[in-house]
Specification:
The complex is a heterodimer of chains A (143) and B (183). By secondary structure, chain A is α/β, with parallel strands linked by helices. Helix content of chain A is 31%, strand content 34%. The longest helix of chain A has 26 residues. Chain B is of the alpha+beta class and 183 residues long. Helix content of chain B is 16%, strand content 51%. In chain B, strand 6 and strand 7 form a beta hairpin. The longest helix of chain B is centred in the N-terminal third of the chain and has 19 residues. The two termini of chain B are 35 Å apart. The chains are: A alpha/beta (143), B alpha+beta (183).
């Protein structure tokens, strides 16, 4: 084998190996921890709810699938046997709230909070049912 | 005697008002499962909204497609962007009826096997479906579960030929409502 052919062969093998490692990593990639993700939108709980109440399709265009940072007061902390933890934000008397399903890594942090207290939460907006729904939520202003 | 009559009347009134109430949950779950020789794929959504009116039998389920969580990020991205197109069709909705719903006693402990029929809308397509379900009454607490299969083709969900072997054409869907509360 000539030296040139040898280098070409080494080059091809290296490229193939890099491609294979990339493909393997990409295939096994987990969804990102939102603590490491910068919010694309920042909005108060009241304004987010108002946007969805006014025009759901328009609000979806702005928020759906995006990582958003919301500020508001805690209405309810719902712990389902420590497997699921959901935090409801807004006013208890309102028809719609913002419902945040917490990332598992946040379960300890939320214990420092109580109903009625302000909180900042970052999550992925999945849309609007009875409430505006956020998933994979992380607490931002950790005390 | 008068007191007994009043007591009976109270029981009847209470039962009647209970029967008229709507039951709801925001924390139901839907899991779907695709099994092939290449890989098994499962995804779960824990924010299912459901309302059931026992007297009329009317029942509804709504779920946000972007709320399904997969083990791998790539699967979740393909699901949302290419298969169910969740930006365009953010919700899946079922509106139907529980057959013989008014014959279910909400006070007697029992696993009630029922038939639910109605319209399932997903990916912009609506199909009539008929599924067996179980409504469980345990110490006046109401829970429910059902599982059924859907054909991706029925909802015009296309899987690229490159990954056709990885995804079953028939997806198993399990619904679990841990607790219906009074509205």
């Amino acid at each position: 084998m000539s030296p040139i052919k040898k280098y070409v062969a080494i080059g091809i093998v290296t490229l193939a190996a890099v491609a294979a490692i990339y493909a393997y990593k990409e295939f096994n990639r987990k969804t990102a921890d939102l603590a490491t993700v910068t919010a694309q939108e920042t909005v108060t709980v009241a304004n987010l709810i108002a946007a969805y109440e006014a025009d759901e399709a328009k609000a979806n265009k702005q928020y759906l699938g995006k990582t958003i940072l919301v500020n508001g007061n805690i209405v309810e902390i719902n712990n389902q046997q420590d497997t699921l933890m959901n935090v409801l934000l807004g006013n208890a008397s309102d028809m719609h709230n913002v419902s945040c399903l917490l990332d598992k890594k946040q379960f300890e942090k939320i214990k420092k909070y109580s109903v009625g207290k302000p909180i900042a939460i970052k999550g992925v907006c999945t849309g609007f049912l009875a409430d505006v729904e956020l998933n994979r939520c992380v607490i931002v202003n950790d005390k | 005697m008068k007191r007994l009559c009043m007591g009976l009347l109270m029981v009847l009134v209470c039962n009647a008002s209970f029967a008229q109430t709507k039951l709801f949950t925001k924390t139901g779950s839907i899991t779907f499962f695709s099994k092939t020789n290449v890989e098994n794929i499962t995804a779960k959504n824990n924010k299912v909204l459901s309302i059931w009116e026992p007297a009329s039998g009317k029942i509804e389920f709504s779920v946000l497609m972007k709320g399904f969580e997969f083990e791998k990020a790539l699967m979740q991205e393909h699901f949302n962007e290419n298969y169910v197109e969740s930006d365009k069709y953010p919700k899946a909705i079922f509106k139907g009826t529980v057959e013989n719903s008014n014959s279910i006693s909400l006070t007697i402990n029992k696993n009630n096997t029922v038939n639910v029929s109605g319209a399932l809308t997903m990916h912009g397509i609506t199909n009539q479906i008929n599924i067996p379900a179980t409504i469980t009454i345990n110490n006046a607490l109401v829970s429910a579960s059902a599982s059924f299969e859907v054909l991706l083709a029925d909802y015009k969900i296309k899987i690229p030929s490159l990954v056709a072997d990885n995804i079953n054409k028939k997806i198993k869907i399990s619904i679990n409502i841990p607790l219906y509360k009074s509205l």
